[in-house]
Amino acid sequence: MSEKMKVVILGSGNIGSDLLSKVLKSSLLECRLFIGRNEESPGLQRARELGVNVSFAGIQAIINDPDICDLVFDATSATEHIKHDAILRQIGKQVIDMTPARVGKMVIPAINLEEVFREKNINMVSCGGQAAIPLAYAVAQTHPRVDYLEVVSSISSSSAGPATRSNLDEYINTTENAMRFFTGCSRAKTILILNPAAPPIEMQTTISAIVPEANLEQLGPVVDKLVNEIKRYVPGYQLLVPPLYEYNRIVMMVKVTGSGDYLPPYAGNLDIINCAAIAAAEAYAKKGNRAE
Amino acid sequence: MKHVLISDPTLRDGSHAVQHQISKLQIMAYCCAADAAGIPIVEVGHGNGLAASSLQLGFSLLSDAEMLEIARENLRASHLGVFIIPGFGTIKRDLMPAIELGIDVVRVGSHCTEADTTARHLSYAREKGKKAFGNLMMSHMADTKTLLAESRKMQSYGAEGVVLMDSAGALLPSDVKKHFEVLSQELEIPVGLHAHNNLGLAVANSIAAVEAGGTILDGTARGFGAGAGNTQLEVLVPVLAKMGYETNIDLYKVLDLSDLAEKQVMKAAPVVRSGSIVSGLAGVVSTFSNHVSRISAQYGVDPRDVLFELGKRKVVAGQEDMIIEAAMILAQSRKQLV
Fold it and tell me: What is the CATH number of domain B274-337?
């Protein structure tokens, strides 16, 4: 029987804490260390209570014990990640970057999961990117020309922590870049809306496209296939409005209900990017085990 | 004599009323006349501000840069203002170039409970030496205590004034009075109101705001703005004068300005139509009105039902994509009943 792959989670905020819950559920991954910076942080406290080894030494904890893991999830910040990347590259760790730093290749599991076998550092884009880009990709796959793509995501205010709130510009920039990268369409637009309604709304994303001639017959099945593919790693992903042609544009809408691992189910935005990261880590773990 | 600062978003909020098709000539003509009338601030751009030209809200005829350039050339005494909502517009891609084009005033907007998303944009505008204001949108969705807390955040980011936007035209004069008494007392910076006329209360609410300590008011020519429109500028100015407030705006020239705007800038002056009344009652942002009419017709549902449904869902500004789903669900539930 193969052993679980050893991972370390760097960053004890919402993303890091939710990743921890997902690693604990995984049959392929084992969290060797959960790293924060502040001993008193609620994320570290919780990890301790869950019986996980914790450290508040930041990246130094990995430098001190380089054999502790094969893979590192970096859920700190874009600025921190750039420093971490240089160090982790030197000691040869596989890195999954949850920040908008975009040091490594962008990965959307439903589209290019195999990159995790080629690149030492992969970037998980953004929550809106993980939700919308597969469907934008479906449009690009079924239409010879796409003139314009737009992604609008609404998330619950309660699911947007301080980092999200002060990084809306980076979110837009990262998501638009990824839209262009995955679809080849040069005109891409992203809008993010925080909605404070109580009870909190679930993450909803609308994808619109302008094409010279819409082909919904071809698009429909490709969308269904991708949605099913995403559902395999994001159980709460749901196509709310299937492709329709309205007002000279193709429109689709998806909703993401979170798994409720760390934050409640309305936080589908955190859930989807973490589910994508776990899917990438598990793929890497499976391949590693096969090679042994 | 007490002074009220008038800010005029005719060429910004009015953009919604003409599906964002305001032309170069219209901007030119309006800016010249506004400048002549002594309008202190003229706001220009897409209805939802910088970078809001989109399928979600409608594409602008002109780019942000084109609109600002033409306005800049035609405003001398009046200050040129822009609106930016973080989540739509970014500092580097949108605000920085606007500042390079010579704008004077930056209004940074957020939903009324999300002021912390404006921190970087407000402080950036201040760093660049621009006059910066914070706008709290959909202010009918929060109580006085929350509005004060959010305004204080904007104040701490460097806002030189906070403007409550009654985006759905849902406030009553008594609500306005309650908010402004507290905000004008507790904040160190001026407080203002951007009213919408869904319930016919835009002028009354603006008056209630200044009577309770407000010192900034938004008004547009003929009320040109989303849905039922905004506070009618050429009514507001003389009413304020009659009440003893100084705006430094010339009466005849503001009347000329609005006559010109009606002839040259709008297809029709805004009217309080059924949809706007329902949108005010449901607390749904005025910018939804054209989209709701179009989509309701497609799904064969009553636009009023769609608006009340959206109100129940507590949609906020910019969530126009929710209209399709709400209309679709209403159409489905109606089919099931039949």
Answer: 1.10.8.60
Contact (Cβ atoms closer than 8 angstroms) between residue B134 and residue B105: no
For domain A127-267, give its CATH number from 3.40.50.2000, 3.30.360.10, 3.40.50.720, 3.40.50.300.
3.30.360.10
Reported pTM: 0.95
Among B203, B290, B220, smallest CA distance to B44 is for B220
- Give the CA-trace dihedral at B39, B41, B46, B47, to 10 degrees: -80
Give CA–CA dist B300/B319, Å, rounded: 21
pLDDT digits (tens, 9 = 90+) for A29-63: 999 999 998 888 899 999 999 999 999 999 999 99
Task: Give burial (CB, 10 Å; 0-12/13-18/19+) of A262.
Answer: buried
**Architecture (CATH level 2) of domain A5-125+272-291:** 3-Layer(aba) Sandwich (3.40)
Please check whether residue A193 is in contact with residue B316, taking contact to mean a CB–CB distance below 8 angstroms: yes
Cis peptide before A199 (omega within 30 of 0): yes
CB A247 within 8 A of CB B294: yes
Quick check: B90 and A172 CB within 8 A? Answer: yes
Q: 3-state class of B320 per DSSP?
A: coil
Would you call B16 a catalytic residue per the annotation?
yes
Residue A173 has its nearest CB partner, among B90, B113, B316, at B90
Q: φ and ψ at B74, to 5 degrees?
A: -110, 5
> Between chains, do B88 and A191 touch, taking CB under 8 Å as contact?
yes
